[in-house]
Amino acid sequence: MELDKIDRKIVNILIGNSRLSCRQIAKKTGLSAVTILKRMKKLEEEKIIKKYSLLVDYSKIGYDIEVIIKLRISKGNLFKVEKKIAKEPNVLAIYDVTGAFDSIIIAKFKNTKAMDYFLKKIQTYDFIERTETVLVLNAIKEENILVK
């Protein structure tokens, strides 16, 4: 689905603050609340809007360790392994990638002991051939991008 100018504006407003009501979005766009509601429903049906969320500063609640874990997975088992890892509570994201590794995990932990436990646990999973872990020192930017 191609987004028109109004849909892009609605999406960008929601990226800025997903808690706004249809009435508040209508005020910002100059459209009626009914029009906004209909368009938002369409964007949800098309899975352009997947969910309404927030951006948490995890370091302020004790999750000071962020890692990027690269995985090499034996042929034909990528989705099986990723599905299993996706259930782990510390995992923020999993990506299929190109290059020397097959998958990348982004995860956050409260301490090195929790991270160590997680790494040793996933290394025992069937079909994981190799891992490489990168410790994130600073997050320079973490936010949604505006739609153009």
Summarize the structure.
The chain has 5 helices and 4 strands, in the order H-H-H-E-H-E-E-H-E. With 148 residues, it is α+β, with helices and mostly antiparallel strands. The chain has a 4-stranded antiparallel beta sheet with strand order 2-3-1-4, covered by helices on one side.
Description:
By secondary structure, the protein is of the alpha+beta class. It has helices at residues 5-16, 22-29, 33-45, 78-86, 112-123; strands at residues 65-73, 91-96, 103-109, 128-136. A four-stranded antiparallel beta sheet has the order 2-3-1-4, covered by helices on one side. A hairpin with a 6-residue loop joins strand 2 (91-96) and strand 3 (103-109).
Percent of residues in helical segments? Answer: 25-40%
Structurally, the number of domains stands at 2
Which percent range describes the beta-strand content? 15-25%
User: How far apart lie the N and C ends?
Assistant: 14 Å
Q: SSE string, helix = H, strand = E?
A: HHHEHEEHE
Distinct helical segment count: 5
CATH superfamily heading of the largest domain: Lrp/AsnC effector binding domain/regulation of amino acid metabolism (RAM) domain
Q: Work out the radius of gyration.
A: 20 Å
Under the CATH scheme, the architecture of the largest domain is 2-Layer Sandwich
Largest sheet: 4 strands, antiparallel
- Strand line-up across the major sheet: 2-3-1-4
- What's the mean pLDDT score? 95
* Number of β-strand runs: 4
Q: Assign the CATH class of the largest domain.
A: Alpha Beta
Fill in the CATH topology of the largest domain.
Alpha-Beta Plaits
Class per helix and strand makeup: alpha+beta
Question: Based on CA inertia axes, which overall geometry fits?
Answer: elongated
Q: Detail the poorly predicted runs.
A: none
